[in-house]
Amino acid sequence: MDIWSTFGIFALFSILTRTALSAGNSPWVYLRFTVVGYIRLLGNLKGDDDNHGDFKSENVNFAWQHDARIHNETDESLVLSLYNNAAMDHSDPGPSTGLVIHVDLVNKKAWRIQELTDPTDHIVSATQGSFQFLPNSGTEHMLLGYGSIPKLKEYDGDGNVVLRGQFGKDTFSANAYRIFKFPWSATPHWDPALFVNHTTSHMTDLYMS
Ligand SMILES: *[C@@H]1O[C@H](CO)[C@@H](O)[C@H](O)[C@H]1NC(C)=O
Ligand SMILES: *[C@@H]1O[C@H](CO)[C@@H](O)[C@H](O)[C@H]1NC(C)=O
């Protein structure tokens, strides 16, 4: 880790702590600081309108980020994925988005590769949120968890929504710090229950648990 990277962490903490103190935020916000504090680049990327970062960027704009992760890191570049909750600023009408950013470490430039939104569903999370590249999904699918909003969405490599999920009835009835999807199988100790309803002569509904 070189000098400017170390500086990045301090810059991040000072910016976010100042924001939190002035906004009087919930414990979730402090937890988020701890997590993103390990991402050495974020403090130096242009993540807000202040434009005080060391990196030049035309189209990268994020704030209140969550679940930031580094991929494919080399001495020259890396890819950064994060849940962008700039909508939390209230000056930004949202929506909350998933962001994939290419960071050129040599020329200190960053640009957006993907910005994920569901055009049919304008979500503005109050807290939390997650971003996962799905392993072995053929094309690179991505899963967003919307934090304080009990929803998840899977996007294909072109940014189209291919799966929508909701696990709470109302907007604030449940929340998830992070949502992950993995291949899973299990064998229960009991036999599956199956209910068969021959609804018409050519159609049968099966319900199983
Ligand atoms: C990392 O690199 C591999 C190989 O080039 C590529 O398939 C994959 O999409 C990259 N991952 C990200 C997050 O960019
Ligand atoms: C079975 O199908 C019939 C005909 O569609 C329907 O009226 C009935 O409600 C169904 N029963 C259940 C338990 O789903």
- The secondary structure category is alpha+beta
Q: What is the molecular shape?
A: elongated
Question: Biggest sheet, open or closed, and with what strands and sense?
Answer: 5 strands, mixed
Percent helix among the residues? 10-25%
- Uncertain runs: 1-40
Please give the count of helices. 2
Signal peptide: 1-22
Keywords: Signal
Pfam family, one: Arylsulfotran_2
Short account of what is shown:
InterPro entries: Arylsulfate_ST, ASST-like. The chain is 15% helix and 31% strand. The protein is an alpha+beta fold and 209 residues long.
Describe the structure.
The chain has 209 residues and is α+β, with helices and mostly antiparallel strands. It has helices at residues 3-23, 27-36; strands at 56-57, 66-71, 77-84, 97-104, 109-116, 130-133, 142-145, 151-155, 161-166, 194-200, 203-208. A hairpin with a 5-residue loop joins strand 8 and strand 9. The longest helix has 21 residues, at 3-23. It is elongated and about 65 Å long. The termini are far apart. Bound molecules: 2-acetamido-2-deoxy-beta-D-glucopyranose (2 copies). The site of one 2-acetamido-2-deoxy-beta-D-glucopyranose has 5 residues, from loops. Keywords: Signal.
